[in-house]
Amino acid sequence: MLYNVLIVEDDRQMAQSLAAQIGVMGHTVVIAYGPRVAIRQLTEVIPDVIFMDINMPGVDGLEVLRFLRRDPATMKVPVIIVSAEDQEAAKQAALEAGANYYIVKPPMMEDIEKALKTAVRLDPTESAETPADAPPESPADSPSSAAPDQTASSVTPPNPPGTSPTPADQPAKSSAPSA
Q1: Is residue 139 part of a domain?
Q2: N or C: which end of the chain has fewer CB within 10 A?
Q3: How many whole angstroms separate alpha carbon 29 and alpha carbon 40?
Q4: Rama region for 26: left / alpha / beta (φ>0; ψ in -120 to 50; rest)
Q5: Do residues 38 and 149 touch, judged by C-beta distance below 8 A?
Q6: Residue-level pLDDT at 120
C-alpha cells in the first residue's frame, strides 16, 4: 500500500534524504521544514503517516506529537520519530508522548520500511520497540544548516517502471490505477 507521508524536519539535507528514501518506495512525500509549518500543513491535509524529528528550534517534536495526539483529526495518524538521539530515555519519552515507532538518524532503508510497516498496523495508543540494530548517531547530524521554520515542499516519487511520467505541475497520486 502507498501512503501520503509528511516529514517534519528542520534540517533540509536530512529532510531531503529521508524524502528521497521514502519516495523511492513509491509514497507521496511532503516536507514541512519545522514544527510551525507542519501544524499549518496539517490544517490543510492529513497525511497517512508522519516522520518527525524531535530536536527542532522553538517547538520541539515531542510537543508537536502531544498536540497531534490531542487533536481528533490527527490522533490516529501514525508518527515515526527520526532522531539523532540514541539514548533510551529519549526513545521512551517519544513513545510515552504517543510515537508509534522510533528510528535513529541516519535511517537506513530497511529501518524506514520496517517503521512504516509496523507503525501503520498499530493502534495510535500502541508503540513498537525500537529495533536493536538501529544505526549509531552520525557526525553529519550536527546542528542544522536549515533556514528558519518557513516552508513546506512536496517531493514526487519516481515513476515505477512501466508507468507514464506525472507532469511536474500536477500533484502525484498514490492511488491504484482504475480498472
Answers
A1: yes
A2: C
A3: 16
A4: left
A5: no
A6: 84
Say which amino acid occupies 154: S
Domain extent at residue 42: 4-155
* SS3 annotation, 50-119: EEECCCCCCCCHHHHHHHHHHCCCCCCCCEEEEECCCCHHHHHHHHHHCCCEEEECCCCHHHHHHHHHHH
Residue 18 lies inside a defined structural domain of this protein: yes
Task: Indicate whether 141 belongs to any domain.
Answer: yes
Domain assignment present for 174? no
Share of the chain residues as helix, strand and coil, in percent rounded to the nearest 5: 35, 15, 50
Report pLDDT digits (tens) over 166-178: 333 333 333 333 3
